[in-house]
Amino acid sequence: MTFSVTQRGAWITSSERFAGEWQGEGCGAALSVVANYLDVGDTIKPHRHPYAETFIVRRGVMALTVGDESIVCKEGQIIVAPPHVFHSFRNIGSGPLEMIDIHESGVFITEWAT
User: Fold this and answer.
1) Residue 83 covered by a domain
2) What is the pLDDT of residues 23-38, one digit of tens each?
3) Structural domain for 67, as ranges
4) Is residue 4 a part of any domain in this protein?
């Protein structure tokens, strides 16, 4: 059996917070992962992907806009944004927002709204 192990230092960018990006293609995986850590008020601007993106809220509260719809998402929820639809999010909580974002592609493919 052959498997791949990526060490924390190879994808987590800070020793103080769980944040970083990992693209799975080099390990034979058809997915990529973002560990997001957003301070209060931080925003990720509108963007989209040609694949679905799944958000797992580990801690905090965020306002998520997908297309023309906006919702408030909280710790423990799993949300899926469909392919080809612009989405953005903002930390609206009183503390940090931590999420795991799963991209259904071995490499990130992102188009930012202009």
Assistant:
1) yes
2) 999 999 999 999 999 9
3) 18-112
4) no
